[in-house]
Amino acid sequence: RKEVEQDPGPFNVPEGATVAFNCTYSNSASQSFFWYRQDCRKEPKLLMSVYSSGNEDGRFTAQLNRASQYISLLIRDSKLSDSATYLCVAMGEYNFNKFYFGSGTKLNVKP
Amino acid sequence: GAVVSQHPSWVICKSGTSVKIECRSLDFQATTMFWYRQFPKQSLMLMATSNEGSKATYEQGVEKDKFLINHASLTLSTLTVTSAHPEDSSFYICSAARPGTRTDTQYFGPGTRLTVL
């Protein structure tokens, strides 16, 4: 079983739409969670960390549900520039920095 | 901000040759670096954790004799793909953990695209 699982998509949405992605993780001992964005043939870039209390950064909101072991990302008012692959990441054992990436969810925002 | 570089950015080699990829942290010293591999339309898979001055820790299923990692200084880790074969063609990405920050802060290099003919 994969450590982190995501719906690969693609999610095709019009500009201005709200879109949500979920991912699930298998290791209940995972300590930290992140959403990364990866553009085609580029390295992943940190979008936001995910905290138990949930966090918001502009149009982006991330939530963590430890009981159900899933993480979500909500994007409001989608822009064309949001088109990318969104990677869910769970960090392994505490103090060891090991990242486990999901396979990514592709988002296409269309005019 | 923190910058991690990789060299080369892409490489094409013949089957059976060895290829060395460098990962450098440019403005901080990284005691720990990580090597990932990403096949097309797949996730980044952690290959190994590189620790300065000690042996690398490899993930299950990654051959340590095929993927040689050397972390000889606090700013440089190298990954050598020995006797490369076409199935080793992939996107190799390194990351560096910045000391003094949260243990979960990693900075990614731009990646190296390896094509083995």
Report on the architecture of this protein:
The complex is a heterodimer of chains A (111) and B (117). Chain A has 111 residues and is an all-beta fold. Helix content of chain A is 0%, strand content 53%. Chain A has strands at 4-6, 11-14, 19-25, 32-38, 45-50, 55-57, 60-65, 70-75, 84-91, 99-101, 105-110. In chain A, strands 2, 4, 5, 9, 10 and 11 form a six-stranded mixed beta sheet that branches. The model of chain A has no long low-confidence stretch (mean pLDDT 90). Chain B is an all-beta fold. Chain B is built from no helices and eleven strands. In chain B, the strands form two sheets. In chain B, strands 2, 4, 5, 6, 9, 10 and 11 form a seven-stranded mixed beta sheet that branches. In chain B, a hairpin with an 8-residue loop joins strand 9 (90-97) and strand 10. The chains are: A mainly beta (111), B mainly beta (117). Chain A binds chain B through residues 2, 4, 8, 31-32, 34, 41-45, 49, 87, 91, 94-104, and chain B through 32, 34, 36, 41-46, 49, 91, 93, 95, 97, 103-104, 106, 108-111, 113.
